[in-house]
Amino acid sequence: MSNSSDASNEQNGPLPTLELPNGSLITQEAALDTDKNIVQEVRHVEATKAFYRRLWAERDVMSALVKHHIGLGDQFDCFIAPQHQWIRGNFNVCLPVNVRSPGSSYKLILRCAMPHKLAEAHKPGSMDEKMDCEVGAYAWIQEKCPDIRIPHLYGFGFSDQRHFTHEAHRPLYIRMLHGLRRLYHTLVRRPILLSRYTRHAAQYRFPTAYMLLEDVGSDSSQMLSNTWNKHRMDPVRRRNLFQGISRLMLSLSRVPQPRIGSFQFRDDGTITLTNRPLLCSFMILENEGSPAAMQRETTYESIEPFMADLFNFHDMRFLSHPNMVFDDKDCRGEMAARLLLRMLAHRYVRQDRRNGPFILQLDDFHSSNIFVDTEWNITALIDLEWICALPIERLSVPHWLTNCAIDEIREERWDEFNRAREEFMNIFEAEERKVKRQDGLLSEAMRDTWTSGGVWFWQGMMSINAMSTLFTDHICPRFSTPLSFENEQLLSRFWSEDAAEVVTNKVKQYDDYTAEVRALFEKNTLSP
Length: 528
Hints:
By secondary structure, the protein is of the alpha+beta class. The protein has 17 helices and 18 strands. It has helices at residues 2-12, 28-33, 38-57, 59-70, 126-144, 172-187, 224-231, 235-252, 280-287, 303-320, 328-344, 412-432, 442-452, 454-462, 467-475, 485-492, 499-526; strands at 17-19, 25-27, 77-80, 87-88, 92-100, 105-113, 153-157, 163-166, 193-194, 197-199, 210-214, 222-223, 262-265, 270-275, 359-362, 370-372, 378-381, 387-390. Strands 3, 4, 5, 6, 7, 8, 10 and 11 form an 8-stranded antiparallel sheet that branches. The chain has a 3-stranded antiparallel sheet with strand order 9-14-13. 38% of the residues are buried.
């Protein structure tokens, strides 16, 4: 049978594929088997290529902006790396920059936001919102967490051509004036933080928001992801890494926050906790077309309204995403899981913490956001765009420590993760004992949410697509045997008054989506 299949494949030729934004190829079978919106993913490929071409055409402007922010003259040569050296993430593309003169040199990163990955088409202003929050996080950590090594932020610009530069790179009189402003803020004990960034008008127009950062990479410092698979079972390196991550978490949580939200950079240089909690999942799903459940200025002084808006956001995503469910049974199972999660939500909020305090947390924390030395001591933390003040219950051991996604932690992978979790918690508690806290031990909260199952609730609420899987695998078994289709059918009726119509529409939506995917592959096959 194998030979026959090989002969058939050889006769029919290779399977048609489509290119994805990360450069990989996907077959039609795989495209129909994933819950990602492949139609949109394919559109992003051409949008990314067009964005690269536009950036490359603006390299003289980029060179001028680099010199503008560092305060360098024409005697310095600025070299923008060729496109094959650019580093692309989910939301930004990073361009290595070398600045040289006879007496000095700089290694920099020009980090450019990709509008087509930041919901700019659906929600104009979202790219600048992300920039506001990221700069706010940088400035806050610079002042309040000096023990956390982050790249030096030389300057940044918004899509509406507002530019700002760190005071250290401005003329003496501006440094003195800004220093007096900061002194005044300190003396009168104003609660609003005044950052070190000053307005710095530029005559250059650039097509996107950007940040000019120090390049923290070196021969002795590289992304953890580069050596993760090779050394992740090494006990000495693991201990060093777990200590470093624990210190990051403890440092960020040192100053209690009065509300749930994100920091916002304002035109006068101040930093305020006045932006909605800008979670990574929000941006991804809003970029796919999901309606926003929170206005930009919405913050939360208690947990319940925040949870209610999270549920509303996931419900709107459920209704709008074309590839969410594939048939009647799947749809009713999703609706039943969401209904039951709403019913159980109160179990995962401590009443004595419902109104805070809240703590800063890294929402999108992974092995490519950390730079380490050869022994895995953390040398720098990068990508601060998704730092939010969130409930303490949300804090947990990073799920990627065992190399699996959050919805893959089951059966033997659960045992593996639990061992790594306990190893991490022992180190976390040892580091926590060195720090004096006024609002209780974080380790106690982390162990409580693990014991209660709250960790799976909060991970599901913050995820893109793992909510129902985590409910089925980890929450439902605490209360019941697996739900039968009859159970799901009954419960799903209470998801909304028009539940039957929702099911019909979702199945039709999926059928239309699969037809569009097949048409894409057919078009690609017919193209020369």
